[in-house]
């Protein structure tokens, strides 16, 4: 019988999968009824509910993302609730289309139960990603409703 991974271990497994580009495997780290909130997502849905929706989102990222990500300065803070961790890190991002390399700050607050993520509040620097990809005009147009 294997031991259930801790909240910290689940986060580190998630981060390792993201940085290795194994997006199609990531949904398995989430509970069937998981909720992910991308609080600073400037356009599009800020809330994804359910493993099936997450699987579809990760498949889309896997098929279309022009980013290579490396995690740096990773700090995982445990809380007085053993289900909850707060993780802070920077991505060293290489945008394969624009050729730009830059850093993007991140924070995630994860609740992990029985070894699966049940809730995540994600704070990523989406504007930095848009700027590096040369997509700032499209972002502004989307925000203005064009």
Can you put this structure into words, describing what you see?
- The protein is of the alpha+beta class and 146 residues long.
- It has a single domain, classed as Nuclear Transport Factor 2, Chain: A, CATH 3.10.450.
- Helices cover 29% and strands 40% of the residues.
- It is built from 4 helices and 6 strands, in the order H-E-E-H-E-E-E-E-H-H.
- Strands 2-1-6-5-4-3 form a 6-stranded mixed β-sheet.
- Strand 3 and strand 4 form a beta hairpin.
- The chain is globular.
- The mean pLDDT is 91.
Q: What can be said about this structure in brief?
A:
Helix content is 29%, strand content 40%. The protein has 146 residues and is of the alpha+beta class.
Sum up the structure in keywords.
146 residues; alpha+beta; Nuclear Transport Factor 2, Chain: A; six-stranded mixed β-sheet; 4 helices; globular
How is this fold's topology laid out?
Elements: H1 7-19, E1 30-38, E2 47-49, H2 51-64, E3 67-78, E4 84-95, E5 101-113, E6 116-124, H3 126-132, H4 136-144
Parallel strand pairs: 1-6
Antiparallel strand pairs: 1-2, 3-4, 4-5, 5-6
């Amino acid at each position: 019988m294997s031991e259930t991974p801790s909240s910290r271990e689940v986060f580190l497994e998630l981060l390792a999968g993201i940085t290795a580009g194994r997006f199609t495997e990531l949904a398995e780290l989430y509970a069937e009824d998981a909720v992910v909130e991308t609080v600073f997502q400037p356009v599009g849905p800020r809330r994804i509910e359910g493993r099936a929706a997450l699987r579809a989102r990760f498949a889309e990222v896997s098929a279309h993302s022009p980013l290579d990500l490396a995690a740096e300065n990773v700090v995982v803070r445990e809380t007085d609730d053993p289900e909850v961790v707060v993780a802070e890190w920077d991505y060293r991002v290489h945008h394969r289309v624009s050729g730009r390399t830059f850093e993007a700050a991140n924070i995630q607050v994860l609740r992990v139960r029985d070894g699966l993520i049940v809730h995540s509040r994600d704070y990523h620097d989406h504007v930095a990603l848009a700027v590096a990809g040369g997509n700032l005009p499209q972002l502004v147009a989307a925000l203005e409703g064009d």
